Amino acid sequence: MTIKIEKKIKGYQVVKPEDKAAAAAAPAAVEPKEAPVAEVIQMHESLERPEALIGSTFKIKSPLFEHALYVTINDIVLNAGTKYEQRRPFEIFINSKNMDHFQWIVALTRILSAVFRKGGDVTFLVEEMKAVFDPRGGYFKAGGVYMPSIVAEIGAVIEQHMKNIGLIHDPEMSEGQRALIAEKRAAYEQAAQKKTELSPTDADTSDSAGFPPGATLCAKCNTKALVLMDGCQTCLNCGYSKCG
User: Which Pfam families would you find in this protein's record (predicted)?
Assistant: First the structure.
């Protein structure tokens, strides 16, 4: 049989009959199979919104507004059913009967939702929003926590939601620290009882968190739980102490 060679010959090799027989007898080389790689879906802008999302709604009652704000944060579940499953914030809505601040609330929710869909580390939003101060002054919410502005409280709501889904983790105190705080709190309350008995009016000034009425604002956790003990300011909520 004649074979026409249309390409330029760059080299040649003479194959003998015994070489063909050896090649036929040798077992075929088995190519190593590549291990299957799981396709991990990451958050990105082009990720399409599913028909249904899961989320949570938080209520904000501020003395700055006549009506409450309702903050809804919806999450998307990435890599559902695998070990890489993760909930990530996808969109946020804020609703209220108060229409005075409608335009900046709509702008804020659209920007936050865009950042959520961008992907990456979105936890930085919490610190940025909690650092916003109202020039008219802040307020104390239930539990004695100071909020410098309504934007800061929205940031606190986002922080709580991220903690719920596992994006932010609180630094856990050791058992020794918890025991020390409990001991200091008991000693402070005992010393206060020795000085004077609380009048009904004084009892009403204590906050819902149960911290002593004379406690001041802690610079670390923004809670009215800072008391003077042994000549040092100590927070009964987070354990912060100016003495180290």
Answer: TSCPD
Contact 64, 134 (CB under 8 A): yes
User: How many residues belong to the chain?
Assistant: 244
Residue 81 lies in a domain: yes
The one-letter amino acid code at 153 reads: E
Cα–Cα distance, 43 to 40 (Å, whole number) = 10
- 68 in a structural domain: yes
- Domain contains 13: no
Contact (CB, 8 A) for 122 and 165: no
Domain that holds residue 181: 171-194+207-244
Domain count of the fold of the chain = 2
Question: Can you give the pLDDT at residue 204?
Answer: 45
Whole-structure pTM over 0.70, yes or no?
no
More confident residue, 26 or 130: 130
Q: What integer pLDDT is reported at residue 34 of this predicted model?
A: 63
Q: Do 160 and 110 share a domain, yes or no?
A: yes
